[in-house]
């Protein structure tokens, strides 16, 4: 049964989460860290079966990481951006591997590039980088240009 | 007594770890497409465990894009997937346009659509060639790669570059079609349609291919959705989902996109799926050329180098030849993107399905399995 | 002539007394083997020597007499067995320096039985020796090793089955032909065919069953794999090369003349049903033995099945019932004795140094044991029947004979088996000697000279017989002449069949191969120089194996070597349950005869006592 | 003059061998980066470099030329070095695209090296981002000329200056003690999570 | 002495013809693939380069194996009558030829496995499995011819077909020729039966660690094997030849068929290949054999 965007927003509002209507076919949801799993289970139960991917954004000025869980429904044709903010100093969030298995690799990737720890994920070994000793590279305080100059002797071009 | 041989093999491995040996499939292996690796734990010629070895192509795209201007990144994005670059440009530009909340002219939409579909053709030709090479049919690979060049020539005429076109820009496309381009494109399409008969004889109707690929790497209808497969792989398992129809972008709302689905879900079905979609793509380009309106080809967004995108975020997705390419763009209102995150279509297949499928598979079939799933390592590594 | 029987007997008793002094015992073993060989050499040509003890007893009207005779074919078997036994004896001195049990006295007793079988003139002597050999081998196999008990019991159970069927056959034969003399009984049995076909067939089948059990022909192909896997390696070398031929010898002197002289209707212009019966069982054991050998993980088991397959070839030669096939089979007997002994000696050397017989746990030993490797290489080349070495000539003759007789199915299964032989032989070579050398074998050394010299002798023998088959074929021709076969097949270096222009000159083959080596070596020297790099420096698609926790052990493809091929046969093997049947017999056997169990548990002294008892019993029977 | 003398020393045999080498270049194609996508066209029906005797090979043992077809990430660099060292002599290296000269479009990336020639000796660099098949063929033909004239011998340089290359390799592959990142950040991350190994 | 010179001459001739065929074969495949292809003498250039190259060996077994493999095939070649001529006059017994050929395989397999690379060993295991696959149908066809002619001498079989194309076994026993031709595809290791080298699966299998002169020797071995195998086919089915030129031309015809099949087929998996060989060509061969016997 296909639901339109409004009724989904309604449903989510009933659950007590904050919904933002972004674009046609796309809504954004702000959720709390503790509510994450329940929320995703609920979304899945109403037909949001495709986890597009997970990504993190480093809001360094606010001292927070934002994790975005992209979920798409093949029945309702709606894309939901589920945003969770976590503290930058204690970046811990529960894993969703039990919900979607491919999340394993997205979580590994985010752990590698942002240093966010996924509680309950058994394997957070590096996936892409070897012998990385600096701070996780996709954090805003990591300066790739400076790093490249220092390690590879790249010339800075203006 | 009802144990399958592979189950017994894993039992053997537990009992006596000297029965196991390891084989490195990639990164520099003739059967590997791209720079990617699997470390295979094997008993005999059967795989019992697999460790994916990604990251050889990691360039830190997402970091680099934060350093560059909005428009400079147009040069960067197509490089994420070499085989099928245009979806990246379109997805990136669509995301920017979504945040800008502008609607581009219709002709620009059609031009984007045509480049996307041409890119799909070239990518399919490459994918079919890779499949042919994986099972040793180099003649098909040769002819397909040569035919792909016809499309690349057209691209060169249209955009000035063979592979990385940088054709879509925020607000539209760079330039209009040249005189005679459409006629030439029709000719190439006719040629490809004729060649399709030869491909059928060589590859898709070849009994040996059927023998080798039948039942290989079976994905059920439910699993395909569960594991996040997209594109032809999803449709070959019987799911009639296509981003072009479900979440239309560019000119697809004006075109009647036929979604091809097949039941089966094995490597053979996926190979035939590509072949069927290849035929459909030819027809789609013809329809698009017929209905393409005249008019402007881009919006005036001022000096693009000084483009500022208002604060906000958007996710834009595009159906590439391998599946859903998605760009999540966050802007803080400045000259550069605050964060660009890329969803490549190959990750579920290349990493997750590898761990599900490769155990119990023979070493013979790894290359063919990879080619059938169209795994493209650059978009896993980014 | 009797002294060649007495010498091993006396040696066995003496070594029993000095059983604790290993060096002395094995030295005695060597000396007496040398003496036997010398004595056998001097017996060559004296075909009318006999030693007969006539008695007045009659069993079913047949006069009971016990006797030995210098039978040409028996001499042929005995002589070449003795040659190989001597070489194994040299090897054993080194091999047994630090082994637990001491197999020498019992082994000597077996050699006594061995000579008795080949020299027996009548069925009663033959049967006594046969039984003695069966019982004593049980103790030789176990040799103080508890793990070996199951395999040995299995062997004993089959031996008893064979023995009892032979006893019935002998008694029936005596009752109907009124004689126990082997040669005479064969002629009378042929006459019996026209009188009582049922009895004739029964006798023949009972005999054939007994012989097939001893030679591990299908469907009794299981015991070698169980026995060889557990016995002491040097004794197994003897067992696999010499002892497995005990079934072949009576086939050659008794069954083949009987069947060959029958006037039975031919099927498809090719052979009668008796021929096909023997032939198909031979083909089955060749094919099944080959297939099973391919899928073994234990090297001794692998070569056990290889022996089964080789017995199959020999039977195929018999089945052709032509002189080329017959002579080819007898030639293959010697070839197999030599090559199997060589292979098992090199395996014994490997076990001696590494203590491991599972092939996938070995690897890369070529660095450490080059002489063993070369012996093994020679052995497998010979076993695969590749020309410059022995093994080819006999296979060639058998195939020619079968083709001549148009037995197409048999010849195709022969080719299947010998091509398949190439597969399992090479798999053993790769797994044991080539590939990566595991860390734990870094300190392995080549075996001492006492063991490497026998292996070198074996290599020489294989090359000699391969290039100059006359060294075997000349005595064989003379022996067959003495038995009344018209033979004109071989000169010193050529073999021929009765096809048109079908004479091969093995000397020329050798020359051509040598020329090939010269040309290839010239090409090799013509090339730029090469550099030797360590074994672990390998193409790994760019990865560094160490970083992935992959050591030499985990970079060896040797377990489940022919897996895709095996999976083709998996459904077939699941149905074959002959093994289970005999296994259950073997298991239940201990309940049938608790005596053996008790004897075994009481240790060596009891074994000795028991052996002496059996001997006295036999001697008593003989003298009476 | 000196060059001429060097040429004089080359005997007929040398010339013949170089002719063979020139006409039968076997390449190992390390398919890193974008240049890899232009190799199939150059190898197949349209451009067909097999007419010069150039064929792709499966393993480094069989290959004469190593093609590094684009940017080189750190993980790849390690493998390239291993493969380069596994190739028997004489061997040549062809680097594709601007990425292998100065990092190209990825010059400021934290994971791609900027100049391949610092780590292994490069004989010829093909210009372009990415090089067209014509450029690839041109480079291969230049290589053929170099081989015939006896110039192409960067592999000798690798032997002579092994310490230099080794030092550079070790530096970026961090085989020696960690030289990157301030010790403070490092210690912070070590405390926080054990997954970052030093 | 003269015999030695003759042997040397024959060896060089076989190598020359084999390499020439390889070069022409590559050219033909290239034309099928719409390419220009390498020059017809490319194989000579390759071999020249390989021998001039420095090479890498893992241990002496690799050297021994490569020499053994070339020597084995060369000695096999000396038993195959070339237009009725042989280096040393002796009986060219078919069974002997079949068994002698195995030594080449053994040498190659040994050299490959000596490198200790699992890829090479898998290739070897596949090659030997394939050998069991093709030997049976090929031998069945040969058996028919041997029984028909009452001789196992290749020379006599070739002579018995003298006198025009209608006397050729190819015409008399078309089914046998068909079965042998399919088996020959596998003997030569061409597609669809090239699972043993399969680059996309096991990185060119046995050749994975061979470089320089070892690969050069492997090339020469392959060249001689082409000569031997086509030579056997010409003698068996095309009635030998009256002069060397015709003989080589007939050999090329056989090779051409192989190459044409090679160009347009993908490869079987190894167990599929064996099953195929034991069903299709085998049943054709059995029918042929039955026709001959009855």
TrEMBL record, chain A:
Keyword Oxidoreductase in record: yes
Entry's EC annotation: 1.6.5.3
Gene Ontology molecular function terms on file: NADH dehydrogenase (ubiquinone) activity; oxidoreductase activity
Highest taxon of the lineage: Bacteria
Annotated keywords: Oxidoreductase, Ubiquinone
Domain NADH:ubiquinone oxidoreductase 30kDa subunit: 29-146
Entry keyword Oxidoreductase: yes
Annotated Pfam families: Complex1_30kDa
Family recorded in the similarity comment: Belongs to the complex I 30 kDa subunit family.
Protein name: NADH:ubiquinone oxidoreductase 27 kD subunit
Organism: Thermoanaerobacter thermohydrosulfuricus WC1
TrEMBL record, chain D:
GO molecular function, one term: 4 iron, 4 sulfur cluster binding
GO biological-process terms attached to the record: aerobic respiration; electron transport coupled proton transport
Keywords: 4Fe-4S, Iron, Iron-sulfur, Metal-binding, NAD, Oxidoreductase, Quinone
InterPro entries: NADH_UbQ_OxRdtase-like_20kDa, NADH_UQ_OxRdtase_20Kd_su
EC number: 1.6.5.3
Keyword NAD part of the UniProt annotation: yes
Domain of life of the native organism: Bacteria
Cellular component aspect of the GO annotation: respiratory chain complex I
Signal sequence extent: none
Gene3D superfamilies on file: 3.40.50.12280
Protein family: Belongs to the complex I 20 kDa subunit family.
NCBIfam families, A to Z: nuoB_fam, PRK06411.1
Protein name as annotated: NADH-quinone oxidoreductase, B subunit
Annotated source species: Thermoanaerobacter thermohydrosulfuricus WC1
